[in-house]
DNA sequence: CGCCCTCTATGACAGCCGTCATAGTAGCGG
DNA sequence: CCGCTACTATGACGGCTGTCATAGAGGGCG
């Protein structure tokens, strides 16, 4: 696997993101992460002297970069990009996973935001940065498709909001219905460039 | 307080919902709930023989009923109901809370969905039921406003998805921007297709 | 009174948590 | 060979978790 090619440190961050998005932050133990990453437990302290908080933060940051790269790939694979087609691709990533692998996991950034366990000031900043890192390429893509710059960021926020909400509902219902619904209902809106209220 | 008028059992469910939506399920201890509810710890086992799982499920169900009732109240207070105005009211509930009380808490149903801690089959059903209980009055309100029945459920799902996603982003950013954005961008979309007045 | 039923009090239990202390290994430059 | 650095191994620590066992109030009622 390409994964095991990476160093233990990177594997731990990756495994942390994977377990967090499945079980939540509090329910994910350091020992679980180490085992899932097939990494030596003795190295935990060495690589992450900041403890669990640091590992969680890096996992969130990793997820933000991953989502951003994913957007770029969607656009690269798209012959004639359009807002609705981009949104479709973003949604389809989740419907595909849920259909093939079940509804066990959600978005790690959402998990880290919701399950902040009270403390963790730095985790709050990490989640905000992750959402920003995700929003940025989406908004930029929209502007390149002809959406006015003033609305591009807003539409990107709407897309990500609807997607994240639908992910949660899909997990609860164990059905991709909500994901398909937001794609179907929001797609035309994104293409039309509906004039916002006064 | 009206709250302390209620029996200890109901207070525990209420406190559970309140703590879960702030810290998540796993990070919320039974002892925290009992203390927050000013309820006797000895009664926990008596009222909730199903343990934490039962208490969490009841908190989620309570939240679903609460959200449904809230929709009814929004409509009752609305002179001339419209889809966008309903959505505005739903969003404003959260912007108001965040502005006045800070970004500590989110939606308990989302927390219970994301933070399912692996097990808890019954909690999955409870969260699905809660979303359904919330969707139902929204969809019904939309049909009464002139939205075709076939699209009412879809639009309700879109509204709730966008709202929930924006709640999460707002908490991460510690800013109501995302909430205001989805209200502004989605409002006109929801009204479109509705024949204005008789 | 005595009995029952609802509710409460208290403490112990095993188990997991994140953190940390200590020791040890491998490799490399000198 | 040394010393040094990077990394790993292992186990213990206090603290918190949900669960449970046992005992005891309090009140209605015959």
Features:
DNA-binding; Tet_transcr_reg_TetR-rel_C_sf (chains A, B); Homeodomain-like_sf (chains A, B); 0% strand; mainly alpha; Tetracycline Repressor, domain 2; 198 residues; 10 helices; homodimer; transcription (chains A, B); disordered C terminus
What does it look like?
Two copies of one chain form a homodimer. Chain A has helices spanning 2-5, 8-23, 30-36, 44-47, 51-76, 83-101, 108-114, 121-144, 149-173, 177-192. In chain A, 75% of the residues lie in helices and 0% in strands. The longest helix of chain A is centred in the first third of the chain and has 26 residues, at 51-76. Chain A has one domain (2-192): Tetracycline Repressor, domain 2. Chain A is an all-alpha fold and 198 residues long. Chains A and B meet through α7, α8, α9 and α10 of A and α7, α8, α9 and α10 of B. Chain A binds a DNA duplex (30 and 30 nucleotides) through α4. Chains A, B: Keywords: DNA-binding, Transcription, Transcription regulation. Chains A, B: Residues 83-184 form the Transcriptional regulator LmrA/YxaF-like C-terminal domain.
| Residue share in helix of chain A | over 70%
* Overall pLDDT confidence of chain A: 92
User: Termini distance of chain A?
Assistant: 54 Å
Task: Give the CATH level 1 class of chain A.
Answer: Mainly Alpha
Number of domains of chain A: 1
For CATH, the homologous superfamily of chain A is named as: Tetracycline Repressor, domain 2
Kindly identify the CATH topology of chain A: Tetracycline Repressor, domain 2
**Helix-strand category of chain A:** mainly alpha
Question: What series of H and E elements makes up the topology of chain A?
Answer: HHHHHHHHHH
């Amino acid at each position: 696997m390409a994964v095991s090619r990476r160093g233990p440190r990177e594997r731990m961050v990756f495994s942390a993101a994977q377990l967090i998005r499945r079980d939540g932050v509090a329910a994910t133990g350091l020992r679980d992460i180490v085992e899932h990453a097939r990494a030596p437990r003795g190295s935990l302290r060495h690589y992450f002297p900041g403890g669990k908080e640091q590992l969680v933060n890096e996992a969130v940051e990793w997820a933000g970069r991953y989502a951003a790269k994913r957007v770029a790939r969607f656009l690269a694979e798209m012959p004639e990009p359009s807002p609705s087609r981009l949104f479709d691709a973003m949604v389809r990533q989740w419907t595909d996973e849920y259909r093939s692998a079940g509804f066990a996991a959600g978005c790690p950034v959402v998990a880290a935001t919701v399950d902040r366990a009270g403390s963790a000031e730095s985790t709050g900043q990490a989640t905000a940065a992750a959402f920003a890192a995700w929003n940025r390429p989406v908004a930029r893509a929209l502007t390149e498709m002809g959406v006015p710059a003033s609305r591009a960021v807003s539409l990107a926020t709407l897309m990500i909001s609807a997607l994240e909400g639908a992910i949660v509902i899909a997990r609860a219902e164990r059905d991709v219905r909500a994901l398909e619904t937001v794609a179907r209902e929001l797609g035309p809106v994104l293409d039309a460039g509906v004039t916002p209220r006064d």
